[in-house]
Amino acid sequence: MTQWPNPLIEQRADPFILRYQDRYYFIASVPEYDRLELRCADTIVGLVEAESVVVWRKPDIGPMSALIWAPEIHHIDGQWVIYFAAAPMRDIKEGLFQHRMYALTCDDADPLNGNWQERGRIRTPIDSFALDATTFRHQDKQWYLWAQKDPAIPGNSNLYLAELENPWTLKGKPVMLSRPEYEWECAGFSVNEGPAVVRHGNRLFVSYSASATDENYCLGLLWIDVNDDPMQPAQWNKSARPVFTTSWENRQYGPGHNSFTVDEAGNDLLVYHARNYTEIEGDPLWDPNRHTRIKAIRWDANGMPDFGAPSADTLLNQRAVNSQ
C-alpha cells in the first residue's frame, strides 16, 4: 500500500506499532494521560477500526498517579512488556514533572486479554526525571534506551543506554549517547527524548525527538556500525541537522516521537505524531490533536534513511480503505 490515511489514528500521541507473528499491536499516549490502551489487527490500516482495550489504569495516589506518557509494548523472551512514564499527582499539582519509568509484564499469549503485572519502577543511577524508554535486541543482548535529566548537565533530558538483566532491571552502568547541543535541539526546551531503533544493512540507527513539543519538535539521528560496541559513545555518529521537521507547505507541525515498524511486505515505515495547526491555546501538553501518522522510509545509496517531509493530511475515507 503506497497511500496511507493521514492521520492514521486521531488524538494518539507518541505512537508505537509492533509487528509480532504477522499481527500489529498499537499503543500510544491517550489525551487524558490516565490509562494504557492496546489495539491489535492483521494489517496496519486495520488498527484504525480495531477495538481499544484498556489493560491498565493509573491509581488515584502514589508514584504512578498522573501523566501516563509514551507507552511501548515489546515481546521479550516469551513475555509481553509495556514500558511507560508516570508521575505522582501531588507533584503535578505543585507544577513539578517528576516522571520515572515503570514496567508491566504479561505472560499470556494474548496481551489484550491477559493478566498484566506491575513490575515497579526501573531504577537508574540518577534519581531524576526519566521517560520514553524503548528496548531492542542487538549483539545477543537486550538493551534499554531512554531519556533522563542529569542535574549536572544543562537541559531537560539526554539519551542513555544500558544492558538489561531482565526487562525491568538494568545490568551494569549506563552510558550517555547524546545530549542537546545544536540550536534545533534547544528550541523552547533543550531536549533529547523519544528514542527509537531500526537496523538497516550494517548500521544500527537511533532516531530521537528534540526541542519543545510545538512546531519546533523534530527528529535527530544517531548511528553506529553493527559490529561496534554500542557502549562506547565515541563510536556513535550524530547528524548535525534534524532529519525530519515541520512542513509548512504540507501543514504538518512538530513531527516527532516516532517508532519504526514494517508494512505487510516487510518495508520499513516511520510511525510518528504531528499536528496540522500551530495555534495552540495554553500548554501544548494538553492539546489533544497530536495524531498518529505513518510514512514509508527511503534508504539512499549510502544506506542512510531519508524520511522526507511529513505527508499532508489526506481526505481518504479510512473505513473505505480498511475494507479494500
Automatic annotation (TrEMBL):
Q: Does the keyword Cell membrane apply?
A: no
Top-rank taxon of the source lineage equals Bacteria
Tell me which UniProt keywords the record has, alphabetically: Glycosidase, Hydrolase, Signal
Instruction: Please verify whether the record's keywords include Signal.
Output: yes
- Gene3D superfamilies the UniProt entry points to: Glycosyl hydrolase domain, family 43
Q: Supply one GO molecular-function term.
A: hydrolase activity, hydrolyzing O-glycosyl compounds
Q: Set out the biological process GO terms recorded for this chain's protein.
A: carbohydrate metabolic process
Question: For the site Important for catalytic activity, responsible for pKa modulation of the active site Glu and correct orientation of both the proton donor and substrate, which positions are given?
Answer: D132
List the InterPro entries: Alpha-L-arabinofuranosidase, Glyco_hydro_43, Glyco_hydro_beta-prop_sf
UniProt record similarity statement: Belongs to the glycosyl hydrolase 43 family.
List the PANTHER family hit by this protein, alphabetically: GLYCOSYL HYDROLASE, HYDROLASE, FAMILY 43, PUTATIVE (AFU_ORTHOLOGUE AFUA_3G01660)-RELATED
Protein name per the record: Alpha-N-arabinofuranosidase
